[in-house]
């Protein structure tokens, strides 16, 4: 593990709370993505569009007491 997740973890390094300047809302147009997501699928929809345009998305998840990293 490279430790980068620890460097930005809000549980390790609390962040200063600020009032948002503006708020936007949205959801995925694809009902399968939307229903499988916890918050409307916006992040998934953006990641899918990014990968289709040639980008690479990396992510991690917490599984069995450990962070699991993947692309």
Topology:
Blueprint: H1 4-8, H2 31-36, H3 42-52, E1 59-63, E2 66-70
Antiparallel strand pairs: 1-2
Point out poorly predicted stretches: none
The overall pLDDT average reads 87
**Which structural category fits the helices and strands?**
alpha+beta
Report strand order across the widest sheet.
Answer: 1-2
**What percent of residues are in strands?**
5-15%
- What is the number of helices? 3
The largest sheet, given as strand count, sense and whether it forms a barrel, is: 2 strands, antiparallel
Number of strands: 2
The portion of residues assigned to helices is 25-40%
How far the N terminus sits from the C terminus, by CA atoms, comes to 15 Å
Shape: extended
Radius of gyration, in Å, reads 15 Å
Structural features, described:
The protein has 71 residues and is α+β, with helices and mostly antiparallel strands. It is built from three helices and two strands, in the order H-H-H-E-E.
Characteristics:
3 helices, extended, 14% strand, 71 residues, alpha+beta
Short description:
With 71 residues, the chain is α+β, with helices and mostly antiparallel strands. 31% of the residues lie in helices and 14% in strands. It has helices at residues 4-8, 31-36, 42-52; strands at residues 59-63, 66-70.
């Amino acid at each position: 593990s490279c430790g980068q997740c620890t460097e930005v973890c809000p549980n390790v390094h609390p962040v200063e709370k600020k009032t948002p300047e503006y708020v936007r809302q949205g959801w995925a147009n694809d009902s399968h993505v939307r229903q499988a997501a916890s918050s409307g699928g916006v992040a998934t929809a953006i990641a899918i569009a990014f990968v289709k345009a040639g980008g690479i998305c990396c992510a991690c998840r917490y599984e069995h007491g450990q962070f699991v990293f993947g692309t």
